[in-house]
Design goal:
Number of strands: 16
Shape: elongated
Structural class: alpha/beta
Distance between the termini: 56 Å
């Protein structure tokens, strides 16, 4: 089967294919790429959201495709995780996904399938959750269910007296409600098991609350116990209040008299003392519970933020480049904060509700068993309706979070590009784009709000019905003499309290759904592969790699038949071999895309070659301990990053204990001391976010001073002086000649005046091929590519 495909959006530099959606409904089936990495792809498809059956169809179809190792389709969020063999190209894997979507649509006979030109096909047998098609076939499928419901209603009407006699038996009523609730929960749990499967294995993950709480389970248990005690004391207080009123109205209590408390004054004092004790316990345990829950929430938030940030710091640069900075920042701030809010606020409400129901059930069974059925009957219905709307609410909440992330990402990007937008006079265009994104975000918020507003009203209706029924039937039982007034009194207030606590479940459910979406984004960030600290492909203390003593390091670098390609692109290096001698200055020049910066990234192990070796002093860098390797190499890029701190703090970054004299000496070597000394605050001048208060050349010189202060045996300068003027460049060159004595210097440049004093110059060509090599004078005399570039840049005539 073939799929109608067109060139689709680019995901992380990889062009993928997307089906042509010829209708508004067909657009729901268009896969949207989230991230494309070698061997792993993430997509989002609205068609699968809230449809576990369709998710299983897609998984089954993709697992049969050659080269596909594993696939996970989440019916809650509509996201797809696709793992494939590295021999399968990213574009081919994306095409297989589109074919699988077409097959799903074909199996359903949906309008989406017709819009994409898919023909009819027999639906698979495992589609129980898929939405039935409209028309005669859909009516035929719904007919048995309609007949079954009609028969059940007729049986209930005909057997009304028998049903009432059954309901008057509290233990049977409670048992039936418990069994029905268990069936509803079990079916819902099994239906969502697939959505909770881990991305790397078939087994379901632990429950979300257990994953959130983690190692703070003991503190969580203490807080839950305090919440339960506070709720029990509160309900005891409200149960005593009508008892005191009845005591005064009747002039005494026979029950208290049987226990040896005679006289209305003594009985009133006893109940008042019990009420005061309950009030004190309620206030004390409530305060302790609030403090405990906030403590647990803070611990959970701190723990997740620390672990997540540590994981982000250990992620390989190649993998982190595929994640938007705004998204990562939103996970570390908003999403982790959502976990803390849920634990500190909503779990408190849930525990209080559970404790209230746990007290309400035995009280009804002991005091008024004939009324128990009216309190227990709504529980299975409430459970069924809650799970019925749960998946839809979770999907809407996840979509809301995704739209909000897109809006925040665009706003952040526009703020960074403020000058670019102004210079291009595209303010109106960006305002329109933000307005469109804001509109989508608002619509997603409204949809999530509608989904979240229904469950609490269902709970209110059930609780109110139970309260009205309890008062009506209980009052009639008291009038007939079947129920004692003293037993019925405490029950008047309790259903109202239970209903009040049940009304909080709606808010807790809404926050729980938001927390699940936040937890998924956090765990998706944790799934990014960490960078091995030891030899490539290993990790942990046991794989620390070979030590690299800095004092004995000579700094000889060799590329031996290295081949490397960025994902989805042609190889930028193809069997490239070159030698950078130790203690000398070597320059790499050539056209853009010749692989010069890639060589630096391979040496730093930001990337890894597909074939060949990168050697440092004869040792493959992949076998060296990563911290030792990077401590031995100073890397200054064309666009260095400066922190929002003082100039002194930026220069000292990585060499925090350097003295003032060492700091000034490094700045002099980098040609930065003159302009720093001329600032009002000198080295204490704050540079602003990303060094915005400084010019490009000033930022480069501060970054260069940072590397000079580190004093590494190997230094890589990647266009490190491209933003400085000629006079400053000459000053820096003279200083670097002194600094580079007996030090391996690798200089990458387009401006040839930067490298004319180098001991060896490599002219890189297409595919990383070395077109020419030699000193500046030798290459000029050679009359080749370097000579032509030199004459162009120096103002002389270009050679023919």
């Amino acid at each position: 089967m073939t799929s109608t495909l067109a060139a689709g959006p680019h995901a992380n530099g990889v062009a993928v294919a997307a089906p042509r959606a010829r209708s508004r409904t067909g657009s729901r089936a268009v896969p949207r790429p989230r991230s494309i990495l070698p061997g792993r792809q993430r997509w989002e498809i609205d068609l699968f959201r809230g449809r576990p059956g369709l998710a299983r169809v897609a998984e089954a179809s993709l697992r049969q495709a050659p080269g596909i190792e594993d696939v996970r389709v989440n019916p809650v969020t509509g996201r797809v995780l696709l793992r494939h063999d590295h021999t399968l190209a990213a574009r081919d894997a994306a095409r297989l996904l589109h074919v699988a979507v077409d097959r799903v649509l074909t199996a359903l006979h949906t309008p989406e399938a017709n819009a994409l030109g898919a023909g009819p096909a027999a639906p698979p047998a495992y589609l129980p959750e898929a939405r039935p098609p409209r028309g005669a076939e859909g009516t035929a499928r719904r007919l048995p269910r309609i007949l079954g419901l009609g028969c059940a209603a007729a049986a209930a009407v005909a057997g009304g007296p028998l049903l009432l006699r059954f309901l008057r038996r509290p233990l049977l009523t409670l048992g039936a409600a418990a069994v029905a609730t268990a069936v509803v929960v079990r079916r819902a749990w099994r239906r969502t098991d697939r959505a909770r499967e881990g991305p790397d294995g078939p087994g379901p993950r632990r429950h979300a609350v257990r994953r959130i709480v983690g190692r703070h389970r003991r503190k969580f248990g203490v807080a839950a116990l305090l919440s339960a005690l506070s709720t029990l004391a509160e309900m005891a207080l409200f149960a005593l209040t009508p008892s005191i009123v009845l005591l005064v109205a009747r002039g005494g209590s026979a029950t208290l008299t049987r226990y040896g408390i005679a006289g209305i004054s003594a009985q009133l004092g006893t109940l008042a003392a019990a009420g005061a004790l309950a009030c004190a316990v309620m206030a004390g345990t409530g305060y302790a519970a609030g403090v405990a829950w906030r403590g647990v929430a803070q611990d959970v938030e701190d723990d997740w933020r620390t672990r997540t940030y540590a994981h982000v710091q250990s992620v390989a640069p190649a993998d982190l480049e595929n994640e938007r900075v705004s998204r990562v920042n939103a996970v570390l701030s908003e999403d982790i904060g959502q976990l803390g809010t849920f634990v500190g606020t909503n779990m408190h409400d849930v525990v209080q509700m559970g404790a209230g129901l746990a007290l309400l059930v035995p009280m009804f069974l002991l005091l008024a068993p004939q009324l128990a059925w009216i309190a227990f009957a709504p529980i299975p219905l409430v459970a069924w309706l809650s799970f019925r709307f749960h998946e839809r609410a979770v999907a809407d909440t996840a979509a809301c979070g995704e739209r909000r992330a897109q809006l925040n990402s665009r706003v952040t990007e526009n703020l960074h590009a403020h000058t670019t937008i102004k210079s291009a006079t595209t303010e109106a265009h960006e305002i329109t784009r933000i307005g469109e994104l804001n509109g989508r975000c608002s619509e997603a918020n409204r949809s999530a709000g509608r989904s979240a507003a229904l469950p609490p009203q269902i709970l209110r209706l059930a609780g109110g019905s139970a309260l009205v029924g309890t008062v009506l039937l209980g009052g009639r039982a008291v009038l007939r003499g079947e129920l004692a007034t003293a037993a019925f009194g405490p029950l008047i207030e309790l259903p109202g309290i239970a209903m009040l606590k049940l009304s909080r479940v709606g808010s807790a459910s809404d926050h729980y759904q938001r927390t699940l979406a936040a937890l998924e984004r956090i765990e998706r960030l944790h799934e990014l592969p960490v960078e091995p600290q030891g030899p490539a492909g290993t990790d942990g203390p046991a794989a620390a790699g070979r030590e690299l003593p800095l004092r004995s390091l000579r700094g000889r670098i060799e590329l031996r038949k290295v081949t490397f390609a960025y994902p989805g692109r042609a190889p930028v290096l193809r069997d490239t071999s070159l030698i950078i001698p130790p203690g000398r200055t070597t320059a790499l020049v050539g056209t853009t895309g010749a692989g010069k910066t890639t060589i630096a990234k391979l040496l730093m192990r930001f990337r890894h070659p597909e074939r060949g070796q990168v050697l440092l002093d004869g040792t493959d860098v992949r076998t060296l301990g990563l911290p030792d390797l990077r401590r031995a190499i100073g890397y200054v890029t064309q666009e260095p990053f400066l922190f929002d701190a003082t100039i002194a703090e930026n220069i000292r970054y990585g060499t925090f204990h350097a003295t003032e004299a060492q700091l000034v000496a490094a700045a002099r070597t980098a040609g930065a001391h003159a302009f720093i000394d001329g600032l009002p605050d000198g080295y204490d001048t704050r540079v602003g976010e990303r060094g915005a208060a400084l010019s490009g050349g000033q930022r480069q010189r501060i970054a260069l001073a940072r590397t000079v202060l580190r004093d590494p045996p190997v230094v890589i300068l990647d266009e490190a002086t491209s933003a400085v003027d000629n006079e400053t460049e000459a000053t820096i060159q003279r200083a670097l000649q002194v600094f580079g004595t007996d030090r391996t210097m690798l200089v990458i440049a387009h401006r040839l005046s930067t490298v004319q004093c180098a001991d060896r110059i490599y002219v890189m060509g297409s595919g990383g091929a070395v077109a020419e090599r030699g000193t500046h004078d030798e290459l000029v005399a050679l009359g080749g590519v370097y000579s032509s570039l030199w004459k162009l840049q120096s103002g002389g005539p270009a050679l023919t």
